[in-house]
Here is the input.
Amino acid sequence: MEPRRLVQESLTLLILVTSSYGGHLKSGATLRMDQALLTFQNQLTEEVLIFYTTDYCYKCVYQHVVTVKPNNNNETAVISTKFTLTMQVESQDRNATLCRWSQIYGEGGHYSVWIQMSEAPGNPSCTHTVDKAPNNAYLPLLVAALLLAIFALLFLGAPYIYRRSCTSDIIKTICCQGPQYSVNNDGRQAFEAEHNTNNAKPTRLCSLDTFRGFALTLMVFVNYGGGGYWFFQHAPWNGLTVADLVMPWFVFIIGTSVVLAFRSMQRRGVSQLQLLRKITWRTVVLVMLGFCFLNYSPRDGLLSLSWLRIPGVLQRLGFTYFVLSLLQTFWGQKEIPLRVHHWWNPVQDVILYWQQWLIIILLETLWLCITLLMPVPSCPTGYLGAGGIGDNGLYPNCTGGAAGFIDRWMFGNNMYRYPTCKELYLTTQPFDPEGVLGTINSVVMGFLGMQAGKIIIFYKGRNVQVLCRFLVWAAILGISAAILSKCTRDGGFIPVNKNLWSLSYVMCMGCFSFLLLGGMYYVTDMKNWWSGQPFTYPGMNSIFVYVGHSLLGFYFPFSWELRFQESHLEWLLQSLCGTALWVLIAYLLYRKKFFLKI
Here is the structure.
């Protein structure tokens, strides 16, 4: 999900500011998070130029940082500490590279680079010194993780300790009196019998609500900034971060829910016409919700043309739901066959739905043909790069290849204006991660979730087989993603890319989804070791939480103006508090039996 927070002006450029301090740090100068100070001391008799690139920017052109005059002059630059930087020192007179090094600098650190002649004649060297030790940027995250772990242990352990304490007759007599805790002759509590009776009734799949709630909670956290850590924000182009996981998980859950919900409606005798009405209504509401609130800006009013964006998250979810629902309506309502011997019994959950598979294969073939074969003006055919200064600066206006070209042709400037590649690749073309071409693979991702739902239905009561099927699908998808990407970030046939929703990205996320849902299914539905709380609360009110956190995320108490921007501490606290508030709101709505449904 793309966060809609106001752009932090101090965090949008890799090299943020350059200035000369005459050899000394200006008094009172402070650094913000993800920044370090780098001073270049030139002891040569010739002028030198400093350039940089970063390992996360694929084949990027070196960018100029500062020019340092000769004879003990110096220049200072505030640099980013997010990724490893490759610095290069070049001679102005000789047009030659004097030295080059790669290093990741620590947040808040002050460093000096001494450019001087080495012992070998005519061979300059660059020597590093640390003037001020950097801060531990990950300490706030470590403390927060420790506190959350302690809280989780208390949350899970307290009910267990309480139940254990009630096994003592003395404690039961003193603390656990009441009809719900009355003791039978055999020493068992009446509430256990009531619990067993309730278990006999059809219940929701706990693992699905838990998975949905976990994905939504993580989504809220990363949309609120994730404490400003780069790995809680979307990858600049290729590769994966934590923020890149949540939306495909959500799409996967939509597919699983479609199969289970339509199965239930089929048993109740709902006709195809009624299903089509419900599908159409829900799709229209999702698309309109997405279009209206994504164009919302607190500065310009409820409907602001300054934020106008036609594609969007809910628009994509709505269209994906519509296609998946049509597949399930016309080609999905099949009764489980009698248990007779057929050669295709091990894959009956695939063979019986061959029409759905045929449509999905055709859609994926369409994506591959358009992406890899469609000619794009002034761009190489099949280009999957970010453009800008990437790929040696040869294709600056080719951001996203065919996907970007189609979106710009259809929507013009009414699309996402701050793509994740803009900061690192210095792109000038708009690019929308929820564009038209990527929506095809969103449908494929949802169809993988449908496959999980079919497995749950076909192998109901045979939990071991359900888990084995999940593991087999995870292995198939994981191996396929590894082959397509060649287990590299940028060098594969089709790199893992969330912006493009590439085929390897869908397969990788499908692998993770099957593993995560399988793990939650084992823990919550099979073993009953965990009820899924607190994730089940937002999971059962996902539309309310998603729309609410997007609309109100600008306002207190969900966010406030950051006062201490030299550390991740306050931003991390803000992100955690905003997320916790929405989990609490979802819990209160659960207690009030309020569930926003479309």
User: Anything to note?
Assistant: Residues 202-217+239-334+346-368+380-540 form one domain.
